[in-house]
C-alpha cells in the first residue's frame, strides 16, 4: 500500500505513513459502529485489549450523542 501511495504523497507533499492510514481506518470503523473484536481481528492484534487501549477514544461529541439518544 505504501508503494501505491508514495506517488500521491510526493505529488501532494503529504506527510503520512501506512500506519497513519491503518490508525485512521480503525478509528473510522469503530466510529461507524463496527465491533471492537472485528476491528481487532482486521488489525491482527493478538489481544482485543491492544485494540481497545490504542483506538477506543471517547470524544465529547460521541458522549453528547449517546446521552441525547437516551434522553
The portion of residues forming beta strands comes to under 5%
Q: Helicity level, as a percent range?
A: over 70%
Count of extended strands: 0
**N-to-C span:** 44 Å
Instruction: Count every helix, treating DSSP H or I runs of 4 or more residues as helices.
Output: 5
**Morphology:** flat
Structural class: mainly alpha
Mean pLDDT across residues: 79
The H-and-E topology, N to C, reads as: HHHHH
- What oligomeric arrangement do these chains adopt? single chain
Radius of gyration over C-alpha positions, nearest whole angstrom: 15 Å
Largest sheet: none
Low-confidence residue ranges = none
SSE layout and pairing:
Elements: H1 2-12, H2 18-31, H3 36-42, H4 48-55, H5 60-70
Amino acid at each position: 500500500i505504501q508503494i501505491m501511495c508514495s506517488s500521491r504523497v510526493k505529488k501532494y507533499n503529504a506527510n503520512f505513513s501506512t500506519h497513519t492510514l491503518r490508525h485512521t481506518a480503525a478509528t473510522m470503523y469503530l466510529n461507524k459502529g463496527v465491533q471492537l473484536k472485528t476491528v481487532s481481528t482486521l488489525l491482527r492484534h493478538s489481544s482485543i485489549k491492544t485494540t481497545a487501549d490504542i483506538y477506543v477514544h471517547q470524544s465529547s461529541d460521541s458522549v453528547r450523542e449517546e446521552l441525547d439518544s437516551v434522553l
